[in-house]
Amino acid sequence: MGLSVSGQAFAATNNNNETTANEDKTTFEVTVYGEKIERSIYDTGSSVHVYDEDRIASTPGASEVDDLLQLTPNIVDSGQGNNLPSIRGVDGSGPSIGGLAAFGGSVPRLNLSIDGRSLSYSEVAFGPRSLWDMQQAEIYLGPQSYVQGRNASAGAIVLKSNDPTYDFESKVKAAIGQQDYSQTAAVISAPILEDQLAFRLSVDQQKRSSYADLTAYEPVGDPNRIEMTTARGKFLLEPAGLPGFKTTLTIAHMDTVGPQSESQQTKINRAVYETQSTSGIWDVSYDISDTLVFENNLIYTDRTYDRITDPAGRKQDFKSKGNEFQIEPLVRFDSLSEDLSGLFGLRYFKSEDDDVFEQTGSSIPMEGKNRAMSAFAEVTYLVMPSIEVVAAGRFERESKKRYVAPGRFGLDYDETSNVFLPKLEVAYKPESDQTVGIRAAKGFNSGGGGVGFNNKTWAFSSYTYEDEYVWNYEFFTRHSLLDNELELTTNVFYNDYDNFQVLETSSKGDVKVDNVDEAYTYGAELGSRWLTTSNLELLASLGLLKTSYKDHANSSKELARAPSLTASFGALYMFAENFELSGNANYTGDYFSDVENSANQSIDAYWVANAQVAYVFTNGRMSLFATNLFDSEKETFNFGGDDITKQAPRQIGGSVELYF
Q1: Model-level pTM?
Q2: Are strands 197-209 and 340-359 parallel, antiparallel or unpaired?
Q3: Are 538 and 568 contacting, i.e. CB atoms less than 8 angstroms apart?
Q4: 235 falls within a domain
Q5: Could you tell me if residue 242 is inside a domain?
Q6: Structural domain boundaries, residue 650
Q7: pLDDT tens digit sequence for 17-70
Q8: What are phi and psi of 416, to 5 degrees?
């Protein structure tokens, strides 16, 4: 387990540990990469939780991103399905899900990127999010639009995979557990030309059975089957004849199949999603001088997803084929006096989708096109040795087109948005590991169009909604105390939304996305890490949250999945030289599942506890883990009626990793 900044970070086995005055204890300083600038956690004002490989290995049963999200305060992850995690009470899915989102083109508020490529909504909701061979995972809470651009107004998850090495490296992993869980994974990295050319290949396949006990039907076969496959190949080139030049080519493939959700509702045969994507990522870096670096990131992706339903019942298949192209050149600079540094970059993104909605006896073609062009910059200036000012800005122009063939579901949407997203941060640093600061930043989620329906007459009609903006204000602190044995972190925030996008049902029964004038969230994330002895580390983090918005009837309501209190407690104990015992207990307060605050869709507070014991040896590690240790069966989401999602049942399993 491991969390940082507004949480905790283990300091047990990282190769970059720094030895303190007490030689029996080690600590390490967390470095973050996700804001495009590599820097210490003490130089980072964002509320971010950081997991490196050792932290992930120490987290009980952690094999995919969801396992880390469930440990993070002020995040609610309701499990597999349409609903992405909510962050600080803001739904990461965007304003709509399911069929409404499919017709209008999904616009999530949560940005999940792997090696610089932002995943589409369907990939985040239903695709694989493997942690195998990841160098680091970073979870950002709060608007990240000025950094990530589109689709990041709630937060961002940044994954960075390991690069090839010039030393031979290989490892394999096998894991089994309850619910027919299995994981088979391998990685190999080796030089091709000494100190100039190397490659890395990794593959991971995870399988399990759904705990919802779904009924089999054709053509999907067993809808309980959940299978995720990730494969990645990397080539690293650093030619001796061109000092300072580095380029990496990555080919990544992801494939998954699984039910649309794991809710307990069983009256209708459950739809199954199949998603696939193949990406080519080309990164270039060149040190022009001691103070100037040029970088470029170029990505092309082909992706598909199919929603498969029962043709003998209520057939509602959805098939999508799309592609994406992105290029992002940037220049980093540092002054010789080291009091001024920053970056300037450009970004161009485009995507095209061809979709088909199929019902019994009919099909409805759709198409979508997105274009986004942006220029961004960030400058850090050391006003005096202890005061640092960071100014950043992003200008973005985004064009969206969505066309649904005329008829019952007809839609023709074509709009362009222009937005400037500034950030200003001032930090006081009396010491390198003591920071107090304030920051303000603007976030953005683009508007769109869709096809709504009336739940009384079942008539369909098209609609549009406007861009959403948010001003984020934060006070943050970072403190390392007791000779680096105790770390304390704080982020206190206030988010003020303009034209907040929300899915509402009018008094006449119209269900559609609309903008509300007034919405806000405020709260805090508090974290601590205490290396009590050379063998024991204790961790605690706390999330406080208050949300409110006014609907069109001028009634104040809470946002959905916005508990006022969340907390996480953990420990890592090393004993008998080669053994590790780790565990965590995580609390989520009560909340509503819907923005209407329906009493029959409220969720009671719940706990979940996880534990793991591992034996670590020179050439590997063996682990025995238990997730949901006490087999809690509390509800996590209520769609209404008997359509309820509960906590995943207890899973006991084991894994073996071998290094060669």
Answers
A1: 0.94
A2: unpaired
A3: no
A4: yes
A5: yes
A6: 18-659
A7: 343 334 444 455 788 999 999 999 999 999 999 999 999 999 999 999 999 998
A8: -130, 135
